[in-house]
Specification:
Layout lengths: L3 E5 L3 H12 L3 E6 L10 E4 L1 H10 L2 H7 L1 E2 L3 E4 L5 E4 L2 H8 L4 E4 H10 L6 E3 L14 E5 L2 E5 L1 E4 L6 H6 L7 E11 L10 E5 L3 E7 L5 E8 L9 H8 L7 H6 L7 E7 L8 E2 L2 E3 L2 H4 L8 H18 L3 H29 L6 H13 L2 H12 L8
Parallel strand pairs: 1-2, 1-11, 2-8, 5-13, 11-18
Antiparallel strand pairs: 3-7, 4-7, 5-6, 9-10, 12-15, 12-16, 13-14, 14-15, 17-18
Length: 385
């Protein structure tokens, strides 16, 4: 089966969906609301499930070539005490690939390179679609109405299409945490590829990239909407006294490079990921907190599964039913696990609770840490065609 599809949203999930649909013979147009592709974002870790999805879509090798394997690292206290060691070699042995780190801009560029440039239209906002016809969806665009057999709603956590299709759904809610992040201006001498440090209601982490630079992020308990005139200076004060390389990472960052976003999630699950000829994907379907590093990976799983369902089903309706049945239980389960991981990890702020958490982590065998990652990353993509 083939047809014409419109993908609303040119982020990781939307681009991956477009690649998958083109791979099975569909005509695809991607509509991106941003007028320019600034590729806002810092870095990302891709686990085995995300990499396998990229392999199924035909772009895994290019992503691996641009990424850096994350073999060394772990979780520490602000003073530098080791809570848990990340055994990247054990993960690679169990899953066939290590976790890798890559700048978001690089990943976006690689995904765009797999699509003909004329199939990506920027500066096009899609607040709603017309799904009154039983066999087509009409999508308004700058050059007129696009008629499609399928619309992929990949328009993010604040999805307008989700609001149209599910008007009674409460939508995303603030998680209680805000995140600041950036990429260092120059390469860094780091002793670990990946590291998290947990304090009281705060997490600081870094990912090393292939070019020697590093992404860092700071996740903080905070009321929604709080912003500071000098965010980098505020972070230097907040993390004063925390172990190296945290001060060095902040020092190696230009103030204008710091991004600040409140973290919103879909606490109330969607009743379905499909409606008529619309498939919801990525944050539009299951926005989750970043505490498991699975947000992008789940969007990539969505993309590979949607393409496989459409390649092997006689009708769009049967394909979307398969997509919903395969993706909704898993993605919503991972979202619940991410929320729980945040509550038991970064978001803990009471000194007694933090002490108990740290003790439990120190006593847990490293194999338990590996198993916790395997639980979510051990996924195999369905065959396309």
């Amino acid at each position: 089966m083939s047809g014409a599809a419109v993908v609303v949203g040119g982020g990781i999930g939307g681009l991956a969906a477009a690649i998958g649909l083109r791979r099975i013979g569909w005509e695809v147009t991607v509509l991106e609301r941003a007028a320019t592709l600034a590729d806002a974002g810092a870095g990302i870790s891709l686990h085995a499930n995300g990499l396998r999805a990229l392999d199924a879509l035909g772009v895994g090798a290019a992503v691996r070539a641009a990424a850096r394997p994350q073999y060394t690292g772990g979780t520490r206290t602000p003073s530098g005490g080791l809570l848990a060691r990340m055994d990247g070699a054990a993960l690679a042995h169990e899953l066939g690939t290590p976790v890798v780190g890559i700048p978001r801009a690089t990943l976006h560029a690689l995904l765009r390179a797999a699509l003909p440039p004329e199939h990506l239209l920027v500066g096009v906002s899609v607040p709603s679609v017309d799904r009154s016809a039983p066999d087509r969806v009409a999508v308004p665009a700058a050059e007129g109405i696009l008629e499609a057999d399928l619309v992929v709603a990949a328009d993010g956590v604040g999805s307008r299409l989700r609001g149209q299709v599910f008007p009674d759904h409460p939508g995303p809610v603030y998680s209680g945490s805000t995140v600041l992040r950036a990429i260092t201006e120059h390469p860094m001498e780091l002793s670990t590829d990946f590291e998290l440090t947990w304090g009281q209601g705060a997490e600081f982490g870094h990912i090393a990239f292939a070019d020697g630079r590093a992404e860092w992020h700071a996740v903080l308990n905070s009321p929604a909407g709080v912003r500071h005139a000098d965010p980098l200076g505020g972070l230097r004060h907040r993390f004063s006294g925390w172990h190296e390389p945290i001060p060095a990472l902040l020092e190696a960052t230009r103030p204008e490079a710091v991004l600040h976003h409140d973290i919103h999630e879909l606490v109330t699950p969607l009743p379905t990921f499909v409606a008529d000829r619309i498939a919801f994907l990525g944050d539009a379907a299951h926005a989750m907190t970043p505490h498991l590093g699975q947000g992008a990976c789940q969007a990539l799983e969505d993309a590979a599964t949607l393409a496989a369902a459409l390649s092997g089903a006689p009708t769009v309706a049967s394909a979307l039913a398969r997509y919903d049945a395969e993706r909704r239980p898993r993605a919503q389960s991972v979202a619940r696990a991410a929320r729980q991981a945040g509550r038991m990890g970064q978001q803990l702020s009471h000194p007694v609770a933090v002490a108990l958490r740290n003790t439990a982590l120190r006593l847990a065998p490293s194999r338990a840490t590996v198993r916790s990652i395997l639980r979510h990353a051990d996924w195999q993509p369905p065959r396309l065609g």
